[in-house]
Design goal:
alpha+beta, 40% helix, globular, 7 helices, EC 2.7.4.6, 4 strands, Alpha-Beta Plaits, ATP-binding, 138 residues, four-stranded antiparallel beta sheet, binds adenosine-3',5'-cyclic-monophosphate
């Protein structure tokens, strides 16, 4: 079984779509090992997205991610990293396939409803950024 890290971003939370997204997560067969609702500080968002520090969208991204409550989760499934990325769809909701979360709930590349790890090493960093081992329950 593989683990991945997921966020329901502030846009989706504020729009009242967290429940629908959680329902899809269960319906697709993921197990939620850990879940927290929290408000990231600007500094916490910058640390989480440090890999994007040099990108032109870094400031807008970290402002947005610290703009309101979000839900952070650890998901488990066979091939969880790829499976969650497929369920989310393309980063830009305009390019995302019908039926994906970003198509349904995202409104722009910045306000794209969800985040997911892109590789095992990223998943390990991102899970560890928010959760300790004893917080993850099978
Ligand atoms: P996420 O999967 O959370 O990872 C980084 C985020 O940066 C991404 O989703 C987008 O919301 C945001 N972003 C803004 N502009 C870009 C871009 N040009 N390329 C990739 N991500 C971008």
């Amino acid at each position: 079984m593989e683990r991945t890290f997921a966020i329901i971003k502030p846009d989706a939370f504020k729009a009242g779509n967290a429940g629908k997204i959680l329902t899809r997560i269960y319906a697709e067969g993921f197990k939620i090992l850990g879940l927290k609702k929290l408000c990231l500080s600007k500094k916490e968002a910058e640390g989480f997205y440090a890999v994007h520090r040099e990108r032109p969208f870094f400031n807008d991204l970290t402002n947005f991610m610290s703009s309101g409550p979000c839900i952070v989760m650890v998901l488990e499934a066979e091939g969880a990293i790829r499976k969650w990325r497929e369920l989310m769809g393309a980063t830009n909701p305009n390019d995302a396939a019908q039926g994906t979360l970003r198509k349904e709930f995202g409104t722009s590349i910045d306000n794209n409803a969800t985040h997911g790890s892109d590789a095992p090493e990223t998943a390990a960093f991102e899970i560890g950024y928010f959760f300790s081992g004893i917080e993850l329950l099978a």
